[in-house]
Amino acid sequence: MRLVYRDQLFPRQEYRRTFEVLLERLTDKQACKTMVELLALAHERTCERELAERLADALGAGKLPDMAALRSRFAPDPASLPVVSVHLTSLSGY
């Protein structure tokens, strides 16, 4: 919250505006936690632009971001995940 370079953390204007609205409507702690979750989601799922669009839509509708819906929207496609098969060796070989 009190970082000198806090504003440089936001990759786009929509993120900055979201943080301002979060601070208006939530406690500082809740706003910071939500913002960290949003930034982590954007980074981990490489969806910075698309997430910014969703944030702008939510703010335009007068709503706060719905983290559960955003996590679900930007979750990896289960069909694209590799199938991992693990074969355990018998302990008798040791």
Residue stretches low in confidence (pLDDT < 50, at least 5 long) are none
Strand content: under 5%
Series of secondary-structure elements, N-terminal to C-terminal: HHHH
Kindly name the structural category: mainly alpha
Query: What Rg, in angstroms, do the CA atoms define?
Result: 19 Å
**Number of helical segments with 4 or more residues:** 4
Q: Based on DSSP secondary structure assignment, what is the total number of beta strands? A: 0
- Overall structural domain count: 1
Shape: elongated
Distance between the termini: 54 Å
Biggest beta sheet summary: none
Helix fraction?
40-55%
> Mean pLDDT, nearest integer?
91
Give a description of the structure.
With 94 residues, this protein is mainly alpha-helical. It has 4 helices and no strands. The longest helix is centred in the middle third of the chain and has 17 residues, at 28-44. The termini are far apart. The relative contact order is 0.13.
